[in-house]
Amino acid sequence: EVQLVESGGGLVQPGGSLRLSCAASGFTFGSFGSYAVAWVRQAPGKGLEWVSSISASGGTSYYVASVKGRFTISRDNSKNTLFLQLNNLRADDTAIYYCAKGIDFWSGLYFDYWGRGALVTVSS
Amino acid sequence: QSALTQPPSASGSPGQSVTISCTGTSSDVGGYNYVSWYQHHPGRAPKLLIYEAVKRPSGVPDRFSGSRSGNTASLTVSGLQAEDEADYYCSSYAGNSNPTYLFGTGTKVTVL
């Protein structure tokens, strides 16, 4: 079964940067490079919020308006790994960040496997 | 809009049914067939329960069912069990809108 494991979370000051990783394994139908993947976050006490998706090839990316220009999604299909570079972090970026596998090539459509999340805390 | 509308809570006794609504617009829930539902136990990975509004992935019990009418989707949990106590979120693809994907506000289901 597909497994997604996030890493790289931590405490960072406002204005700082962090890089999240998501290692994927267990693909029995297709490969990691066949599917779009996404980052979804959950702020404390809040619901889920889609943050960004990247196409299977890595050539196309999508962002929610609040992170555009500050976050960059990327992937290394040779290492079955997804990344999220978080720059110029703000307090309202504090959240658990989940990696999620989509079912199509472009942006996901819906997400059939998720990781357990990585906590990012932005505070001075 | 920034989120789909769900009731904050729902409850039922073991064996009963609960239905959770998810209201959007013609630009998301009503405009595309890509409505999905997720179960989330805090501290664990969210789990896909329903996709394309009415379909169940293999391994998901048939106690979970989905429907959609116009701009509103619904999730019904029949024969409630203790392990169904969790947060439930709907989601919809929104095409070229931003954000591309909307999640619902979330519903906490309590098994009495």
Short overview:
The complex is a heterodimer of chains A (124) and B (112). With 124 residues, chain A is an all-beta fold. Chain A contains no helices and 11 strands.
Characterization of the model:
The complex is a heterodimer of chains A (124) and B (112). Chain A is 0% helix and 49% strand. Chain A has strands spanning 3-7, 10-12, 18-25, 37-42, 48-54, 61-63, 71-76, 81-86, 95-102, 111-114, 118-122. Chain A is globular and about 45 Å long. Chain A is built from no helices and eleven strands. Chain A has 124 residues and is an all-beta fold. Chain B is mainly β. Chain B starts with 8 loop residues before the first strand and ends with a strand. In chain B, the strands form two sheets. In chain B, strands 1, 3, 4, 7, 8 and 9 form a six-stranded mixed beta sheet that branches. In chain B, strands 2-6-5 form a three-stranded antiparallel beta sheet, with no helix packed on it. Chain B has no helices and nine strands. The mean pLDDT of chain B is 95. Classes of the chains: A mainly beta (124), B mainly beta (112). The A-B interface holds A 4, 38, 40, 47-50, 53, 62, 64-65, 98, 100, 103, 107-117 and B 3, 34, 36, 38, 40, 43-48, 51-52, 57, 89, 91, 93, 98-106.
